[in-house]
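=== RUN LOG ===
request id: a7f3
mode: sequence -> structure
chains: 1
length: 341
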Amino acid sequence: MASIETRELAAGILSAGSQPTAERTTVIVPVLNEEDNIPVLHEALTAALRGRDYELIFVDDGSVDGSLQVLNSLAESDEEHVTVIEFRRNFGQTTAIAAGIDYSSGDVIVLIDADMQNDPADIPMLLDKIDEGYDVVSGWRVDRKDAFLTRRLPSRVANWLISRVTGVALHDYGCTLKAYRRDVLQGFRLYGEMHRFIPAYAGSVGARIVEVPVQHHARLHGTANYGLERTVKVLLDLFTVKFLISYARNPIYIFGGLGLFLITPSVAVLAFLGVRRILVGTSVLKSPLFTVSTMLVILGFLCILMGFIAELLVRTYHESQAKPTYSIRRILNGKGGPPGT
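=== RESULT ===
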């Protein structure tokens, strides 16, 4: 597992002497019942981004308080920078982020919560890291102001597990405050609670990732919209993420591997039963091992067949959409487009 420190050193060498760019920045803010925090957040974001080309996209995720009215007022008073997307109902934080990305125009995408626990004053630091050559800058709430048993402890366990499974080691996957180059957000859709796995997706295509300490404040207004049950959803989504990252292009590896794992010992057991029948005379059909082994052999073949079907689906997916199976960072002195264009 490559360490964040190693990646930081490598990207620092590659980007030595880089200067801040005039790239457009989009800040996406999912909102759910945060009417008291929104005006303070807008003021803090405006101060943090002063002097930059930026837009603020607030996505109202079915708020039932006065959040939407506050957002509408902001859109009228700051028409140059504020865009408001109103959902018909609550779809979840990940979907709100996905909608913000879809309607964004920035070269750099910054995500931040609306509860003011993340500090907008940290955004320039994230953008400076992007200017240094990183593709993903992930916030790390070193001094997190949340309850230990219901928030911090489950988060530590989840972060350790996600880092081990995905191979992208971060201390704080759950911190919404992150900055991304737009190109690393292309090529996949967000579902469930998968917005926290974006660094893992980006790492799978070779993105340069760095983690930086950010401030975290206790909530002053409103109540938390997510509880302990979210950890269970994250763990379930982790199975999907691992499959998509490791096996989406070659599903036969996991299905075929499982099939061979089931077939190999089962055939050995059947061979043992046959030899024992010849040497000792013990009935093969009356042994429960025969029934179990036969079922496992059949199940193993079915797994391999599922792998073949999955391979056909993957090829159909890529070829029907002319979707490449690779990710290019840049081309120097390139002539023309890809083959067939």
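=== NOTES ===
The first strand starts at residue 25 and ends at 31.
The domain at 4-247 is CATH 3.90.550.10 (Spore Coat Polysaccharide Biosynthesis Protein SpsA; Chain A).
=== END ===
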